[in-house]
Amino acid sequence: MPSLATITAACDRLDAANQAVLFNGGKLAYTERDEADKELRDLIKELAGYVQAVSKGDKPQVQDGAFDVVEPGEPIGELPPPQALGSKLTNMSGRVALDWKGVRGAKSYQVFMSTSNDPFKWELTAVTTKSRLDVDSLEPGTFYWFAVSAVGAAGTSSKSDPAQAMAA
Fold it and tell me: Looking at the whole model, is its pTM more than 0.70?
């Protein structure tokens, strides 16, 4: 367990390094600040590990150690389909730029494309962790239909409402 004197010294070092960055701003000052920051973070992690081990997760004891208690997360459950799927204009030939509203709890999104809307013939086009995607190598001037599913811990949502877009 790091001593109070060790943590205080690390805080003082970081404070001095921050002051040097403010007044000097040189590369050496930034490097010293980053090293001091890492040192203090490592000490705090070590102290937190000690408090966790000694308290065995007992909330009042953890709080007595001057640490906040993080409540365990609750499962989100089934995800709703992404909303507001649309496309933005692009000047890249053969590209469709898609975006949609992100879904809380989604770890990734599956993007599907169809060249027909009667009936849709969905093909998985991409998987992304962002709520936007550029789909390239399409036939310029051709209309395509897209839909997106959110993927989370409980599985995959249903597809979003389809959106039509023309490749640039």
Answer: no
